């Protein structure tokens, strides 16, 4: 499966501009990839205190992504600000080329950034099957909590984190992604942004695609605005799990 990481700045709270920027990058990938990974809150930036930006899961953002998926024949994942039954969520999405959409809400809300004051926490893990792989999709702060990311009995092959992870804590991001790859014996994709938001918080990227031994398959230079693609296969992963079956000795958790 060909997976493409789109690392770039987000325009603060400007949905139309961000949709335009995302489509320009996705259009360039037509016929060149199978899965496109967009950032956390890709249409707004990390706007935790602007619930007026929220949309239902059948609103403009997801309808637009579904149109892209069909038009460019790719799967697309990321997150957006969602509303449902009067509550707000940092909602990740996985849209298939046929337009089918699956969702999971961010489990761990970043209280130091005020996310918990406006958003509700998710409690339903999502694993999708696409391109011959089982894929788990999580959001930013979730990377710090290994129990929620735990790969019980090799349920997934690829773990994706979409993020707005600040430059001042980027070493944590680098280390945690590698830990998640090793402990879960899984490919790990971490997709972050660059630039500076309206609160003066800087982001320097460090998006990465790792194999199941935390070897870098894709990496970005500091503050690099770029799209990068790599083809991953399950054969080596399955062989590694058979030869070194750490997963059999793992603790089991119920959250």
Structure description:
This protein starts with a strand and ends in a 12-residue tail after the last helix. It has helices at residues 15-28, 60-72, 115-118, 146-149, 170-184, 235-243; strands at residues 2-7, 35-37, 75-84, 87-95, 101-105, 127-130, 133-139, 158-162, 187-191, 194-196, 202-204, 208-210, 216-219, 226-231. It is of the alpha/beta class and 255 residues long. It has one domain (2-249): Carbon-nitrogen hydrolase (Nitrilase/N-carbamoyl-D-aminoacid amidohydrolase). Helix 1 (15-28) runs parallel beside helix 2 (60-72). The strands form three sheets. The chain has a six-stranded mixed beta sheet with strand order 5-4-3-2-1-14. Strands 6-7-8-9-12-13 form a six-stranded mixed beta sheet, covered by helices on one side. It is 23% helix and 29% strand.
Write a brief caption for the model:
The protein has 255 residues and is of the alpha/beta class. It has 6 helices and 14 strands.
């Amino acid at each position: 499966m060909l997976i493409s990481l789109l690392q770039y700045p987000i325009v603060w709270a400007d949905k139309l501009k961000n949709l335009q920027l995302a489509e320009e990058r996705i259009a360039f990938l037509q016929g060149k990839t199978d899965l496109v990974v967009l950032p956390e809150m890709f249409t707004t930036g990390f706007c935790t205190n602007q619930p007026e930006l929220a949309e239902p899961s059948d609103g403009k953002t997801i309808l637009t992504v579904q149109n892209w998926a069909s038009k460019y024949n790719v799967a697309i994942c990321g997150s957006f600000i969602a509303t449902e039954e009067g509550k707000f969520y940092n909602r990740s999405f996985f849209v298939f080329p046929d337009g089918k959409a699956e969702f999971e809400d961010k489990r761990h809300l970043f209280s130091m950034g005020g996310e918990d004051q406006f958003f509700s926490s998710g409690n339903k893990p999502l694993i999708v099957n696409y391109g011959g792989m089982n894929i788990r999709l999580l959001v930013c702060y979730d990377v710090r909590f290994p129990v929620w990311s735990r790969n019980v009995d090799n349920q997934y092959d690829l773990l994706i984190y979409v993020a707005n992870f600040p430059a001042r804590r980027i070493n944590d991001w680098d280390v945690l992604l590698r830990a998640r790859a090793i402990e879960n014996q899984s490919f790990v994709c971490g997709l972050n942004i660059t630039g500076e938001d309206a609160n003066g918080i800087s982001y320097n990227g460090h998006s990465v695609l790792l194999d199941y031994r935390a070897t870098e398959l894709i990496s970005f230079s500091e503050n690099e605005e770029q799209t990068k693609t790599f083809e991953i296969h399950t054969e080596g992963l399955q062989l590694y799990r058979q030869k070194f079956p750490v997963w059999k000795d793992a603790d089991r958790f119920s959250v």
